[in-house]
Amino acid sequence: MNDTLTPCADLTARSAEKAEWNEREIITAFTERQIPLTEEKAKKLCVFGSFLQEKNAEFNLTAITEKNEIIVKHFIDSALTAKFIPLCSRVCDVGCGAGFPSVVLKILREDLKVTCVDSVGKKVNFVRELTEKIGAECRTLHIRAEELAEKERESFDAVCARAVAALPTLLEYLAPLVRVGGKIIALKGKDGEQEKADAEYASDVLGLCVAETASFSLDGDRRTIIVYDKVSPTPLKYPRGQNAPRKNPIVKKK
After folding, report:
1. pTM over 0.70
2. What contacts 202, CB < 8 A, 6 or more positions away?
3. Per-residue confidence at 229, pLDDT binned at 50, 70, 90?
4. β-strand 178-188 against 113-118: which pairing, if any?
5. One-character DSSP codes across 78-121
6. Whether the Cβ atoms of residue 174 and residue 159 lie closer than 8 Å to each other
7. What is the pLDDT of residue 3?
8. Of 110, 122, 197, 208, which has the most beta carbons under 10 Å away?
């Protein structure tokens, strides 16, 4: 997980990208992709998008800053994970960043109990302020995933992550957090299928098996959602400390 947050070098340029938000544009974009969205939820996403642009002019939360791209590449990309999460699940988003997918999921699925986790304090503060602003009840934690696993091991029904690490590394961070019988949802890009193949050995070691894979295109960008079932307890030695999951991921020795 990344511990640095780079200040914005050109505040004027980022501020210039901010545009007026209206719920009808968001509803239309969601409807085109067969995702139901009420006007009330669209209004919350409008506040989310505007606030993201405002704060991104102060410090770097996302490289995606244009309104239409935020709607598609952040909001819709996050929303497409909702159908994989069972009703009333306790969900943990590891490396939540600016609230993707966690805050979007909470807006769409009020039945979920959402915990937003990030090792970068400014990102956690942003998510905390955002959720208070839109009235979305989320727990926010400034903590590393491996530290959380010591405190709340195998306690979540579903754990998700987006743009955190390569899949063999990511699964080591996520698997200890989800209960047996729960799910891991990994949001990946165009190399998702290859990452899934690379993580086959790691998933076996960590007590996981692939449940389903969904691939789709968002405005020309290839996206992949990989869903794992937790079928057995993760060995207690995982996750390893001292950045070992990144330096030495779980792979089968040749």
Report:
1. yes
2. 167, 168, 171, 172, 249, 250, 251
3. very high
4. unpaired
5. HHTTGGGS-TT-EEEEET-TTTTTHHHHHHH-TT-EEEEEES-H
6. yes
7. 42
8. 208
